[in-house]
């Protein structure tokens, strides 16, 4: 099990990304628009830099929803390989059979 603080910080980042996503996308569109004057684009870049760091989507870490483990994460199942194996062995995931020979 991961530390509760790490899990809570990651959840806080997810909420910040969601809250600031519209403003961030609008500023990024201004920065990428080549037809606008350079001063406006530079001002938008400065506003983007002033936004909180944790509102950037790439700061969010994928973590297992069962254990909070950050590594060996399956995106499709939203859990780590260890949690998947344990739940599969207990028969809690339909269609998944642990192979043994």
UniProtKB/TrEMBL annotation:
Gene assigned in the entry: rpsN
PANTHER family: 30S RIBOSOMAL PROTEIN S14, SMALL RIBOSOMAL SUBUNIT PROTEIN US14M
Biological role: Binds 16S rRNA, required for the assembly of 30S particles and may also be responsible for determining the conformation of the 16S rRNA at the A site.
Keywords: Ribonucleoprotein, Ribosomal protein, RNA-binding, rRNA-binding
InterPro entries noted in UniProt: Ribosomal_uS14, Ribosomal_uS14_bac/plastid, Ribosomal_uS14_CS
Protein name: Small ribosomal subunit protein uS14
GO cellular component, one term: cytoplasm
Record family assignment: Belongs to the universal ribosomal protein uS14 family.
Species assigned in the record: Acuticoccus sediminis
Region annotated Disordered, chain positions: 1-22
A GO term, aspect molecular function: structural constituent of ribosome
Domain of life: Bacteria
Subunit (UniProt): Part of the 30S ribosomal subunit. Contacts proteins S3 and S10.
Any single biological process term in GO: translation
Pfam families: Ribosomal_S14 (PF00253)
Gene3D superfamilies cross-referenced by the UniProt entry: 1.10.287.1480
